[in-house]
Amino acid sequence: MKISRMRTEIPPQKLKEFRIKAGWSWAQMAKAVGVSVMTVYRWETGKVRPSPLARRRLLHLMKSIPPAVKEKSSLEIELSDDRSRSGSSPAT
Question: Which domains does the chain have, with CATH numbers?
Answer without folding.
Answer: 12-71 (1.10.260.40)
